[in-house]
Amino acid sequence: MGHVTSDCGMQQESTHGSETWNPFDAFQGGACREYAVIVLNRPIHHWKHHVLLPFWQKARITVTVDGGTHRWLKYLEMQGIDILNDRHEQYIPDLITGDLDSCLPSIIEKLEKIGSTIIKTPDQYQTDFTKALLQVACYIKKHNINLGKIYVLAETSGRFDHIIGNINTLYKSDNLVGNIQVIQVASNSLTWLLKPGLHNIHIPEILVQRKSWCGLLPIGCPVNCISTTGLKWNLSNTTMQFGGLVSTSNTYEDSEVIVNTDTSVIWTMGIESFRESINNETP
């Protein structure tokens, strides 16, 4: 829906620096900073093998989380790949984490024998997603890896408490993995947290042309002052909060969106037309 903006006083210059987001690079074969892939216990839908398999192979670290291990094995089986009985080292997870109550012990044992590191994390006061980020942080420190992004495969349909739990982990990510960008990937959307400061988000031209949806959501607390450029309905020194104004069903006027916010806010965007375009490319 379109919306009006409200004045929250003079917008202050960002004191947190600026951050650039190029989340689509890893899917297009272009140059991108080293990244990790985490597979949560959600179905993997609508990604063709010539897109998702190279995306996995190029990752510096690959992680499956508890039942996400079965999800990844099932996806591979649909592509005719059986890593448990054939030599496909490139598709074996580097790490398997979680409380491991949703994955058969026999599967875990076999994957450990063929190369995966198993780290059981039984703490029930943290979600498996949260614990997986902590393990990635330990892994990169141990191996001296300069990681730029963490992509988390997690469909956003299903149980609402799981969806909100994943959003909560995004808000914790700064304390878990520092300044590494954490991007949640579903078949129809990307979602991540914009921390206070200035953000430059690069939008694929096909999403601009197709007027794909995007939104800014002030989850947890009000956003006191936020401004944008590049959107159809821009915000100008605006206050956002649930029960008041939120930016949903927005879209693009430009291939670069700039967001300046004094409070952490969720950015989410539709990617259906982008996914379809790369799925239809000749492998």
UniProtKB/TrEMBL annotation:
Transmembrane segments: none
Biological classification of the source: Eukaryota, Metazoa, Ecdysozoa, Arthropoda, Hexapoda
Name of the protein in question: Thiamin pyrophosphokinase 1
Gene behind the chain: LOC105430953
InterPro entries assigned to the protein according to its UniProt record, in alphabetical order: Thi_PPkinase, Thiamin_PyroPKinase_B1-bd, TPK_B1-bd_sf, TPK_catalytic, TPK_catalytic_sf
CDD domains the UniProt entry points to: TPK (cd07995)
NCBIfam families according to UniProt: thi_PPkinase
Gene3D superfamilies from the UniProt entry: Thiamin pyrophosphokinase, catalytic domain, Thiamin pyrophosphokinase, thiamin-binding domain
Thiamin pyrophosphokinase thiamin-binding domain sequence ranges: 197-266
Keywords, alphabetical: ATP-binding, Kinase, Nucleotide-binding, Transferase
Alphabetized PANTHER family for the sequence: THIAMIN PYROPHOSPHOKINASE, THIAMIN PYROPHOSPHOKINASE 1
GO BP, sorted A to Z: thiamine diphosphate biosynthetic process; thiamine metabolic process
Recorded GO MF terms: ATP binding; kinase activity; thiamine binding; thiamine diphosphokinase activity
